[in-house]
Amino acid sequence: MKDSMILSDDISEVICATLRAAIFEGALKPGDKLKEDILAKHFGASRTVVRGALTMLAQQHLAERRRNHGSFVATPTPAEAKNLLASRRVLEMAVMDALPGRLNKKEFDVLARTIENETKVHSGSDATEKKRIAGDFHHILAEYAGNHVLLEMLENVITRLSLVNALYERANDCTCGTSHHALILDHLKAGDYDAARTAMAVHLEDMEGNIAFEGVDGEKDEFLAILERMTGKP
């Protein structure tokens, strides 16, 4: 029984992680139904295990359960969106405050390669890949801050903001300010952490300026096709 419970928990984690990734890259959009029967069949799991995964997703505020209708990808309200944007500012500034004394050539090289990859991806036409790498620079900075709680909080907020972007973004632009990232890195390499912090604040303000609280409708992907692409399992 214990081994079975561990296995069930593992499958729930896999399902939750798959759906979370699909939400972050924009394959699953706000309001999309998370179909328990298809999830159960695709992952070879019971409905109980699937519901456990959906409960995890709801605890991360990425899904919501509607009585007698099932679970759906969360749809943040304008008020929630504003709170998420404000929370991100606080978390990103905390990351910047934690960086002095923690960065050396190795870290700078990783950040530089990340920006190079951003530039390469944004010069192409793969919109999904652009969304997938949008938070890489911020994630790496948060890792270097050395506070795993801060990192987890920022990751959750950024993932939830992908839903905000899907609903309220003015333009379909996933560049996340590559030039801003380069400027932040230049300041960090020069040891000017105050300037780097200011550049990050400007960067976040620029991204927030691209949000308009007007709903948009987009074409929805087939749920099973999304699962197959995310897991490589037909």
TrEMBL record:
One MF term in the entry's GO annotations: DNA-binding transcription factor activity
Source species, domain of life: Bacteria
Coiled coil: none
SUPFAM superfamilies recorded: GntR ligand-binding domain-like, Winged helix' DNA-binding domain
Record-annotated HTH gntR-type domain positions: 9-76
UniProt keyword terms in alphabetical order: DNA-binding, Transcription, Transcription regulation
Pfam families: FCD, GntR
Annotated protein name in UniProt: DNA-binding transcriptional regulator, GntR family
Organism of provenance: Alloyangia pacifica
Lineage per the UniProt record: Bacteria, Pseudomonadati, Pseudomonadota, Alphaproteobacteria, Rhodobacterales
